Amino acid sequence: MGATIVVGVAGGIAAFKAVTVVRELERRGHRVIVVPTPASLAFVGRATWEAVSSAPVHTGVFDAGGANHVEIARMADLILVVPATADLLARVRAGRADDLLATTILAATCPVVLAPAMHSAMWGNAATRNNVEVLRERGLTLIEPASGALGSGDSGVGRLPEPEVIVDAAEGLLAHRHKTDASASGHDLAGTRVVITAGGTREPLDPVRFLGNRSSGRQGIALARRASARGATVTLIVANIEGSLLSEGGEIVEAPTAADMERAVGERLEDTDVLIMAAAVADFRPKVVAETKIKKDPRDESAPTIELERTPDILAGAASAPRRPRIVVGFGAETGTIDEVLARGRAKARRKGADLLAVNAVGRGRGFGDVENTLHLLDSAGGLVDVISGTKQQLADGLLSHVAGILRNMES
Ligand code: C5P
Q1: What is the model's pLDDT at position 363?
Q2: Of the residues 313, 344, 362, 377, which should be mutated to test ligand 1's pocket, given the most ligand atoms within 8 Å of the CB?
Q3: Which residue of 18, 127, 188, 212 has the smallest Cβ count within 10 Å?
Q4: Residue 397's domain spans which residues?
Q5: Is-catalytic flag, 409?
Q6: Are residues 367 and 399 in the same domain?
C-alpha cells in the first residue's frame, strides 16, 4: 500500500534531482506532497512541482490557500528532504520554524529522512558535522552523501546520492516502521525462547579487586521484561546487576565474569531461538588472578604492572556456532562523534556476524543508566535497518519488533 510522503526540497543545485525522486516515489505508488523552501524555487520553480505532484505547492506557513503545517505533518508517513542543504540542517537542528518545510518537520511525529548535498568543505565544516551528529542523536535519518563531481566543479564528498538510492532508503524505513507498528503490542514472541545477557562483567585481579565497567544492566532488563510481556520464555543472564532492579520473574542466571557468561550462554545455545547480548562483556582480563590481596610495599614506591589477556568473544562465537540460535543480536557501545560511532558500528557488525547489531553512542553522560537513548540498528552487512529513540523500554520494544519480524519472515 502506498504511503503519504512529504518531499521537502531545499535550495541547492541538486534540487533538480528531487524531481526524479518525486517521480520514482509516485511510480512506486506513493502519494507525494512537495514542500520546497523559498530559496529552492530559484533552482526548480513552483510550476515544475505542481506539474509532477499534481497538487498545489506552498513554501510559507502563511501562503494563500492556507497550507497547514500541522495538517501536512499529520498526513505524512514519512518526510524526505532532497537535497538537505547545510542551512536546512542548521535550521532543523535549531528547531527553527521560518518556512513551511522547517515548520512541518518541527510538527512531525513520523520518521524524517534527510539527504544532504553540499560542497565537501561545507559538509566537513565543524558546524555541519555537529549539526549532523545532533540530528542523528535525535533519531532523524541522514543518508550519507556520495563522493564525486560537485556542482562547483570540484569533486569530493557532498554529492546527492542517486535518486533510486534515496527512494530505496525511504521505502526501507517505511517498511520497518509498518512492521514495528503492527506488532508493538500483542504476543508476537509467543513460543520463542529468548536468552538475554545484561550488566557488566567484573574480571578479578585478586580476591577483592576487579576490572569492571559502568553498565547498569537496565537495557538488558528492559529487553527481558518486554520480551516476556510479548510472550517469550526468557532467560536473563546477569553480570553484577543491583538486586533491586531484578524484580521480575523468569529464569535468572548469575554470570559475574566473562568466563561465567561464556559458559552460561554456551550451555543454552542449542535450545535458544533468540540470543540478545546486551551485557558489557570485558574485552580484556588480568592474565593472572592473585590468590591473596595484592599488597603495596611500604619501602617501595613502585606500582605493579598488570598483564591482560583477551576474553573470548561470546557474541562472535555464538553467531558462528554450528547450532546457533536463529537470531543473534549484539550491542555496540561506541564513543566519538555519531559518524565515528556509525563507522565503528558498521565494521563491528561485519566482524561479529550477528544478525542485528544495536549501536549506541556512550560517554559524556550518554548511554548509561536511566536515560533516553538512540539505537542505530545495523544488519550483519553493516546496513542501517532502523533508528530507534526513546526510553530503554521503547528501545527494547523497537528492537524486539525487528526480531519478531525476522522470525516471521523465516517462518513464511
Ligand atoms: O567488541 P565489543 O565489546 O564492542 O562488542 C560488543 C558486543 O559484543 C556486545 O553485544 C557484547 O555483549 C558482546 N561481547 C561478547 N564478548 C566479549 C565482548 C563483547 O559477547 N568478550
Answers
A1: 61
A2: 313
A3: 127
A4: 187-411
A5: no
A6: yes
State what percent of residues in the chain have pLDDT above 70.
93
What separation in Å is there between the alpha carbon of 100 and the centre of ligand 1? 45
CA of 362 from ligand 1 middle (Å) equals: 15
Phi, psi at residue 270, to the nearest 5°? -70, -25
* 193 lies in some domain: yes
Note every long-range contact of 336-345, with CB atoms under 8 Å and residues 24 or more positions apart, other chains counting. 336/361, 337/129, 337/133, 338/132, 338/133, 338/136, 338/137, 339/129, 339/132, 339/133, 341/376, 342/136, 342/376, 342/384, 345/376, 345/378, 345/382
pLDDT band at residue 348 using 50, 70 and 90 as cut-offs:
very high
Domain containing 204 — which CATH number? 3.40.50.10300
* pLDDT of amino acid 65: 60
Amino acid letter, residue 140: L
Out of 148, 177, 206, pick the residue that ends a domain.
177
User: What pLDDT is attached to residue 392?
Assistant: 81
| 262/324 same-domain check | yes
Coil, helix or strand for 329? strand
pLDDT of residue 370: 44
Residue 39 lies in a domain: yes
Q: Ligand 1 — pocket residues by CB below 6 A? A: 258, 277, 279, 281, 283, 311, 313-315, 330-332, 348
Whether residues 227 and 368 fall in one domain: yes
Residue 373 lies in a domain: yes
What is d(CA 53, CA 56) in angstroms, rounded to the nearest whole number? 8
Q: Is the pLDDT of residue 366 over 70?
A: no
Binned at pLDDT 50, 70 and 90, residue 53 comes out as confident
Between 106-115, 286-295, 383-392, 393-402, the lowest mean confidence (pLDDT) is in 383-392
Looking at the 3D structure of the chain, how many domains does it have? 2
